[in-house]
Amino acid sequence: MKKTYVLDTNVLIHDPEAVLRFQENDIVLPITVIEELDHLKKGNGEIPYSARHALRLIDSFREKGNLSSGVLLPSGGTLRVVFEEEKKINKGNNDDRIIATALFLMNNSGDDQPVIMVSKDTSVRIKADTFGLVTQDYLTDKTTVFRKYGNITEGDTDSTDIRSVRYLKSGDKIFRVYGENNMQIIRRQRSVMSITPKNIEQECAIDALLADNIDVVALTGRAGTGKTLLAIAAGLYLCTKTVHKTSTDHTKKFDQVMVARPIVPMGQDLGFLPGDIKEKLYPWMQPIYDNLDVIVGTPTEHIEEKATHYRSSEYLVETGVVHIEPLTYIRGRSLPRRYLIIDEAQNLRPLDVKTIITRCGEGTKVVFTGDLEQIDSPFLDAASNGLSYLINKFINEPDFCYLNLRKSARSALAERAAELL
Fold first, then answer.
1. Per-residue pLDDT tens digits for 106-128
2. Could you tell me if 115 and 252 lie in one domain?
3. At what angle do helices 94-108 and 31-40 cross, to 10 degrees?
4. Looking at the structure, do residues 116 and 168 belong to the same domain, yes or no?
5. How many domains does the chain have?
6. Which pLDDT band, with edges at 50, 70 and 90, does 370 fall under?
7. What is the CATH number of the domain that holds 307?
8. Helix count (H) and strand count (E) of the chain?
9. Are residues 79 and 157 in the same domain?
10. How far apart are CA 300 and CA 297, in angstroms?
11. Considering the entire predicted model, what is its pTM?
12. Do residues 206 and 177 lie in contact, with contact meaning Cβ atoms separated by under 8 Å?
């Protein structure tokens, strides 16, 4: 049966081409959605970009017909912009106005075509449900693939049905498995930049982070499993390591370790914070500096206490060995020969992940880390965020590795707190 879907603004911010994702069904955009997109389109960052993208797409259909009466979509449905609202609702805010439009359509469409409101805002879905509306989340990019894979298997043979890199423990040996069932034994207890793995999961993570044939790594796990620390240590090691092309030609494998974190929500302006860009970023990037201090030490420590010739985390940043920046400004850049680490990637949208990977130039390796159960963005969940989306799309790529780290390595207290609280 053909349906009418009423889209909330946050759906078009999440996916600017959402109007194309509902097959032969009809799409309705309340005029309030157009007004909110118009308000959001100004400025830099991912949210303004998405608003502009959505408005351009809607305008392209306007050129083909009258949006108030409906324009045919490529999928066979129609796209309409509707002004009418249910008069019985007290319209205190824009959410109420969007709900009022959906109610008007439900009350005037008859029983032959159900009206469904689509919103990524849980409070809007709850409120709409109290008025008798059928509501749902935006389901197009939801996935649960991350729950099935990412674990280290045990036995003599690999039993998974994927082609990306995974790990197998057999007796005292650990094998890197890739493709159909190709296996390569890995080096055990390999330390990197004075960081020694504390469990088998970290051993496998270090191997994936250092492997030449793996271009994209996704590390998930709760706080304290070592995701970010291992990624930064591996990046620093590979930036120090030289590749011997000939007897006289020596070059570094990567030119720089680049670390980025989303400022939640991604695209938020930093202008309200005082100071220059470094001072504005500091509260958001402090965890990165903490991990760098664990690896190379602080200025007050003696250099011989760390197995590195780097003086401090500040030295790494000042000399350009490590570059830290928000993801807000990554659009339009080209990043060759970088060891790119995207921390807290669970707070990214699928569109953000696409933007990041398409920035990677020749010789770049990208590592995504995040906790899929600790999402700060109000419109994302474990099944719809960019990190889950990446895992779903790359799970059969031979140069991709996904590992879910479950064992805490921070402290006994941190592990016990994660279990109890």
1. 998 777 899 999 999 999 999 99
2. no
3. 150
4. no
5. 2
6. very high
7. 3.40.50.300
8. 13, 18
9. no
10. 8
11. 0.88
12. no
